[in-house]
Amino acid sequence: MQFNRTHDIEDLNSNMKGQEVILGGWIEDFRKLGKMTFLTVRDVTGIAQVIVKEDASKELEGLTRQSVIRVKGTIQETKARDFDYEVKAEKIDILAKAVHPLPIDPIGRLESNIDNRLNARALDMRNQKTASIFKLRHHVLASIRKTLSEKKFIEINTPKLIGSASEGGANLFSLEYFGKEAYLAQSPQLYKEQMTIGLERVFEIASFYRAEKSHTGRHLSEFTSVDIEAAFMDYTDVMDVLESLVLEVYQYTSKNCKKEQQAIGTEIKIPSLPFERITYAQVLEELKEHGEKLEFGDDLLDSHLRMVGKKHRGFYFIMDWPMKLKPFYIHEKDDDPKLSRSFDLQYGYLELSSGGTRLHDAKKLKSRLKEQGLDPSKFTHHLQAFDWGMPPHAGWGLGLERLMTTLIGVDNVREVVLYPRDPDRLTP
């Protein structure tokens, strides 16, 4: 049996009348009308109507919806309202039968909850709304790579198995590694900083891991992070890079993903520039108006950010955080050492990205490690790079899934992840 196709469905049109074609796809629906059977066949590119006359319908016995078939036929005119043409079948090969009933209805006539859909995720990809989310994600990644490459960033890949808690965090997954203790990386932070020595501007798009027992619609144990690091840039410079990257994502997908937006039921609205920039101190003042009296240096809770997000809708930056709230590698401000040269990118209450200027002085870095209760000897491999001539540098990390939720207007990041991993889900 042959499996080849001559065309994707999106390549067919009414001007091809009389042309013989071979299609492959799955049966989305079928109905019998007299001596004829009408099939709607879909592949990843589109949907077509196939007409099967009685003399060619023997192969259809026992056929179920969602079964995979190969159709050899001829393009002809149609009277159907929803199609510009139809395919008159000459031969149909059933390549794989689908069981009945299926665990979920991929057409969407019967709505399934997110857990049932995740348990049958591959089948869920035949739901055009779900498929369009991941087609859109593909275009988002293409846009990000295009933007950063045009800005002379070089894509790198850093290890995900590491020998120490690289950022000093506690939320790490540990595992046995040939008799030694190892961890799954929660970010490429130290590696990407080291790469600025020779490559200057680098970026990585990869999976990272956090052992947080968070049960919210925005937390995952395995997530995709977009990270950059750039030599000879300050935190305001990389904020500009981030702002333009987000804008390009919105412009690119708004223009090139019309069908996907229609299937998802959303319209991508391009944000205006510049994104608003407010300071941590300003946030404290705004929270005071809501009766929230925070001391300088207090972290902002989710409840606080929801209050702030009601006033600052859409994208905005919170800048100049207290040093005590930031990791050891963040640089202080020259005019006020209690403040950091750092920022978070927010979308309403939702944090999308965090970044800042990094320390590039080895003595300061060792001192900061000790201040935060970390042992400099565990960072030997990282610190030695600073003895080789570390340029001033800055960078950020951006949560891809969270950015996707802003783009399509969903609250649950699991909608934009193929097989999400969280404290309750390790399969399929």
Features:
OB fold (Dihydrolipoamide Acetyltransferase, E2P); 2 domains; BirA Bifunctional Protein, domain 2; 5-stranded mixed β-barrel; alpha+beta; 8-stranded mixed beta sheet; 11 helices; 27% helix; 428 residues; 16 strands
Any chance you could write out the topology, listing elements then pairs?
Layout: E1 20-33, E2 36-43, E3 46-53, E4 68-76, E5 86-96, H1 114-119, H2 121-124, H3 128-150, E6 154-155, E7 161-162, E8 174-177, E9 180-184, H4 189-195, E10 201-209, E11 222-231, H5 235-256, H6 258-264, E12 276-279, H7 280-289, H8 302-311, E13 315-319, E14 342-347, E15 350-358, H9 362-371, H10 380-385, E16 393-399, H11 400-408
Parallel strand pairs: 3-5, 6-10, 12-13
Antiparallel strand pairs: 1-2, 1-4, 2-3, 4-5, 7-9, 8-9, 10-11, 11-16, 13-14, 14-15, 15-16
Structure class: alpha+beta
Sheet with the most strands, sense and barrel status: 8 strands, mixed
Detail the poorly predicted runs: none
CATH topology of the largest domain: BirA Bifunctional Protein, domain 2
Residues in helices, as a percent range: 25-40%
CATH class of the largest domain: Alpha Beta
Strand order of the largest sheet: 6-10-11-16-15-14-13-12
Count of helical regions: 11
**Fraction of residues in β-strands:** 25-35%
Number-wise, the strands total 16
Mean pLDDT, nearest integer? 94
Terminal CA distance = 32 Å
CATH superfamily of the largest domain: Bira Bifunctional Protein, Domain 2
CATH architecture verdict of the largest domain: 2-Layer Sandwich
Cα shape: elongated
Number of domains: 2
Give the C-alpha Rg: 27 Å
Order of helices and strands: EEEEEHHHEEEEHEEHHEHHEEEHHEH
